Amino acid sequence: MSEEKELEQQRLNRVGQEIDQQLIQAETYFEKAHSETRAVESNYIANTSINTAEVDDAMETNAEIQQQRNIVARVTETENIMAKTVDTLKLLRHNPYFGRVDIVEDSWPETLYIGLSSLQDDNGDFLIYDWRAPISGIYYNGTLGKVSYPTPNGEQVVDLQKKRQFVINDGQITSMFDTNETVGDEMLQYALGQQNDDVMRNIVATIQKEQNQIIRDTTSDLLVVQGVAGSGKTSAILQRIAFLLFHSREELNSDQIVLFSPNRLFSSYIADVLPSLGERNMRQVTLAEFFSARLQGLDVQTLFDRYEQEQRFIGHASYSVRQTLESE
């Protein structure tokens, strides 16, 4: 295994060099996009003249304003894309991947490395597959032998010949082991040892098969997750949000997702999970905050107010009964 570990470390070093090169390039593009955005915004007013004296002038002004807005939106979107690319590469730099699967598909052997995000070289070859990609489901669902994964043309069957898991810290493989399980005991022990009571961590390297079914479900309009305390419900739901943002990225973004939190402390506890997966956080509110914002101007009766009202009613009713009995 020591020789194999050395070969794996050599590959990891090459991937690290590729990440560093792409990061330098991405940061250069980001700085350029940032400068362009600032320039467009600063020239927005100067490039737009307001003239509403005549109908034709007003129409021309509106068209000019819309054109300037489109330019601002375009350069801002480019800057946001480059900023996300930089953040993703920084996440990959110290821990590029955590798993490897060797498969044979249509008599063609292939080795896939699974990590937080996909990474391709200049030739378009995948150095890392995003854990949310359909083919990456093999890592979570499959044991050695015949397994399948979804494709646009239906289920594709492959022969899973090896499943390897890595513990990588700052670009160095500290441990690696082959397993036939979804997650090996060594990986679980390491993950549990890294737990921090102050913040919740992402669990992409230790997702169990049952959790993976929850995370990757795309057929249910309404999904209810039940489980005992500590069974991983919250972790699975947060990874599911990251998966849906990847799976439906053309129609869904973080601003369209609301997570109802029991309190602010819980919101703080889970706040780092999505950013650690390269995604922006969704909105988090408590139910009290949600209803307070949407029911402004309405007098919502609290449980205490209701109790007081019921006690007054009981008191009045008792008094009326006594009065009736005394009058008889």
TrEMBL record:
Tree of life domain: Bacteria
Name of the molecule in the record: Part of AAA domain-containing protein
